[in-house]
Amino acid sequence: MKFLILAGGKGTRLWPVSRKNKPKQFQKLISDKTMLQETVNRLLSDYSLKDVYIATNDSYVDEIEKELPKLSVDNIIGEPAFRERASCIALASAIFSKEGKDEIMAVFPSDHYIKKEKELLRALKDAESFLNDNPDYLVAVGVKPTGPETGYGYIKYEVDNTSEKNSQKFCKVERFIEKPDLKTAKEYYQEKNFLWNTSIYLWKTSAIISRFKKFIPDSYERLCRIRKAVGTSEFQNVLKKEYPLMDMISVEYGILENDDKTVVVSADLGWSDVGSWSVLKDSLISKDSHFVKGEHLDVGSKNLLVYGSKKLITTVGLKDLIIVDTDDAILICDKNNSQLVKTVVEKLEKDGKIKLL
Q1: 254-291 pLDDT, tens per residue?
Q2: pTM as predicted
Q3: Among candidates 175, 258, 174, which has minimal Cα distance to 217?
Q4: Fold of 2-272
Q5: 51-89 pLDDT, tens per residue?
Q6: For tag attachment on the chain, is the N or C end more exposed, with fewer CB atoms within 10 Å?
C-alpha cells in the first residue's frame, strides 16, 4: 500500500497562526509535533516510511524536508500550481502507476486529528482486504456524527446495499454533501445513514485511473502525458505544462459520487477535521473547560480557547470566546462564529495587507 498525504492546503480559518507561508499542517496545534508529523507518525507502527508520499505546493517542499528529514526527497510530490484534490490524486496516480505495480493508494489529509490510531490502522487493514477481493471499487472512510456539525462534509449511504468484510460493512455511497447549514446538519444527525466524511480514501491505482478516463477525460489525457515523462529529464517541463491545466474539481464530485462502485466504511476514530478554532477546542477538551496554549490567567470565565505566544493573556468573566495572540495579530471571536475567520483573511487580502496573510 502507498500513502498519499495531501499537504498543500491554506488553513485560512485558523488565522492568525496558520499563514500563507506556514499553514496549519505545519503548525504544532495539538502537541509538540506539527499536524503533518502527527499524520505520518500514526502510520509508522504498521507501515514503512518509504511508502509514504507527500503532495504539496512547490513552495512548501523545503518545509516538508525540514519536518520529515528521513523521508526520501523522491517521495515529495511538488505541485506547480494550486488545483483541487482530483488533480493531485491524478498526479500521484501517474507516478505510482509508472512504477509498474497496481498497488492500493490510501489518500489522507495532512491536518486532521485522529485520537484512536489503532482503530485507524484496523480500518485500513479492512479496506485493504476488501479491495483485494473487489479491486474495481473505491472506498471512503466515514465516522458516525457526534452532533450536528456545519463545518464538516457528509456522506449519505444506502442502508440496504452493503458488503461485509471482516465484520465491517462497506455500504454503497449515495452522495457527498459539503458543509450543510445547521438545520440540515441536525436532520442528518437524526438519520441513520449519514457519516462525516474524513476525506480518507482507498483504491487500486488502476481503478482510480480508469475513473479519470471515464469521468474527467481531459485530466486523464494530461495524467497520461505526465506518466510518460515520469523518470525522464522532461518530467518537470511536462508537469509544469500539463498540471496547471487540469480540471479544477474535487474528487468527490468529479468521480466518487458519480461511480456506482463507491462504498463507505464507518470507523470509530476519535476524528475531527481541525478546520477552525472551535473545532480544535472541542476536539481536545470538554465544554466549559479551557484549552490553553501559552501563559493564561483567568477569573470566572467558561469555555475559552486561549492560544498565546509570549505575552500573559488574562481573562475575566468571559464565555465561549476564541483568543489567539501572535507576534503581529490578535484574534478575538465568538466560538460559535469561528468559521468566519476565513472572511477576515479574505478582507486582509482584498485590502492588500499581504504581510498579515
Answers
A1: 999 999 999 999 999 999 888 888 888 887 776 778 88
A2: 0.91
A3: 258
A4: Spore Coat Polysaccharide Biosynthesis Protein SpsA; Chain A (3.90.550)
A5: 999 999 999 999 999 999 999 999 999 999 988 899 999
A6: C
